[in-house]
Amino acid sequence: MVDSIKSSKEAIELEDKHGAYNYHPLPVVLSKGEGVHVWDVEGKKYYDFLSSYSAVNQGHCHPKIVGALSEQAQTMTLTSRAFYNDVLGVYEKYITEYFGFDKVLPMNTGAEAVETAIKICRKYAYERKGIPENEAKIVICENNFHGRTTTIISFSNDEGARKNFGPYTPGFIKIPFNDLEALENVLKSDKNISGFLVEPIQGEAGVVTPDDNFIAKAKEICSQNDVLMIADEIQTGIARTGSLLAVCGNCSCEGKCERQEDTYTKPDMLVLGKAISGGVYPVSAVLADNHIMEVIQPGQHGSTFGGNPLGSKVAMAALEVVVDENLSQNARKLGELFRERMEKFIEKSESVKLVRGRGLLNAIVIDDTQESSTAWDICMALKENGLLAKPTHGNIIRFAPPLVMTEEELHECCDIIEKTITEFEKTWEK
Ligand SMILES: *Cc1c(COP(=O)(O)O)cnc(C)c1O
Fold it and tell me: Which pathway is it part of (predicted)?
């Protein structure tokens, strides 16, 4: 018999007893979601301001996406790539046209897609650039987050993510984020560099937003040095930052034309995950043009579930929702509103130092240390007041609601945040 949960306490005890401690969740047990809202086991309703780390941009249980899942689930779920199926090609055409690349390599999780991009980049280095075997290097940024595999954590500088998981994969060079000079110097000084892997905005690091021209200039420097720029848009992509992709930058297209030539920086490889399935099913992808993607030949890379018909249908539905419901434009408009309200609040707040972000990927920084528990304490108080958010560090809280939020709801959420922090400040001992 499978137990059914009757209280939050019971669910937490079960996880404590039987699950590995690889997360430290806020003590709330969710059992239902719809749009921008989630409900706990006791029936309390919350605004979701994490959106499952930006996987649920389209809102919880979007009927169109769930509909696509349920229809395909009753027809065909998995064929493996040993055979063709009648959905994958349709999906591949759809997603490559959607993002403007020749080809896609479908995977499941974000980390797998990053690994895939690293493998393609290395193979390209040996077979197209003539870098001596096993010498290729990839430049990455300080405070990056690209996932949890052994290779990816090898180039993390988060001690928690890294320590005692060695030996580490070699071949990565770290430079500061948002530092064009460092990029230029390192590319000039080492002929064996094959790629630059970068998040257009560093989400896990605390929504660290670079200068407006950083990505465009970085791409120029990469091109001049014949180095592939790999954009990890797993968190920033799919309308989150107010344009379809964060590499669209602060363009003036209002999110309508996502690839205006003068504002869109086209990376050599685009890595997507999270919201390409609207949080309904694990789907990830690497997109690139032919001259890069063709280094992968049969038998050289793969995944049992990658490109399965169920995930493919879900991803198409999820990407359609982004366009149908103008999610880029909405994220852009609401993001401006959010930062305006927070900036006004900061003028009179004793604890909040700054707000930063783009679109609906934002964070506030509290005047305390990275090791403090202040952000956690505020998140606990926000939870009591009906809003769920999570710290990225001891003093940083990320705010990333589903993009289907209305203006009225956003104002209500800002009211909750301001009220909660104001109350918190009355008892705050720094
Ligand atoms: C979440 C995330 C990943 C890893 O995705 P998983 O699906 O958790 O493996 C990689 N890069 C970035 C920028 C992310 O936000």
Answer: Amino-acid biosynthesis; L-proline biosynthesis; L-glutamate 5-semialdehyde from L-ornithine: step 1/1
Residues whose beta carbon lies within 6 Å of some atom of ligand 1 = 53, 109-111, 114, 145-147, 199, 203, 232, 234-235, 273-274
Looking at the chain, the domain(s) classified CATH 3.40.640.10 span 64-324
Query: Measured in angstroms, how far is the CA atom of residue 244 from the centroid of ligand 1?
Result: 17
Homologous superfamily (CATH) of 8-58+327-425 is: Aspartate Aminotransferase, domain 1 (3.90.1150.10)
Six-digit token string for 425 = 């400040």
324 tagged catalytic: no
Neighbours of 176 (CB within 10 A): 11
Query: Can you tell me the distance from the alpha carbon of 308 to that of 305, in angstroms, rounded to the nearest whole number?
Result: 5
Q: In this structure, which residue's CA is closest to atom 11 in ligand 1?
A: 146
Rounded-to-integer distance, Cα 341 and Cα 329, Å: 19
Where are the CATH 3.90.1150.10 domain residues in the chain? 8-58+327-425
Q: What is the pLDDT along the chain (430 residues), one digit of tens a residue?
A: 567 888 999 999 999 999 999 999 999 999 999 999 999 999 999 999 999 999 999 999 999 999 999 999 999 999 999 999 999 999 999 999 999 999 999 999 999 999 999 999 999 999 999 999 999 999 999 999 999 999 999 999 999 999 999 999 999 999 999 999 999 999 999 999 999 999 999 999 999 999 989 999 999 999 999 999 999 999 999 999 998 999 986 555 554 555 555 678 999 999 999 999 999 999 999 999 999 999 999 999 999 999 999 999 999 999 999 999 999 999 999 999 999 999 999 999 999 999 999 999 999 999 999 899 999 999 999 999 999 999 999 999 999 999 999 999 999 999 999 999 999 999 887 7
Q: Is 64 a catalytic residue?
A: no
The contacts of residue 192 (CB under 8 Å, 6+ apart) are 125, 131, 132, 135, 136, 137
Best mutation site among 149, 274, 283, 284 for ligand 1 pocket (most ligand atoms within 8 Å of CB): 274
In the set 123, 137, 219, 274, the catalytic residue is: 274
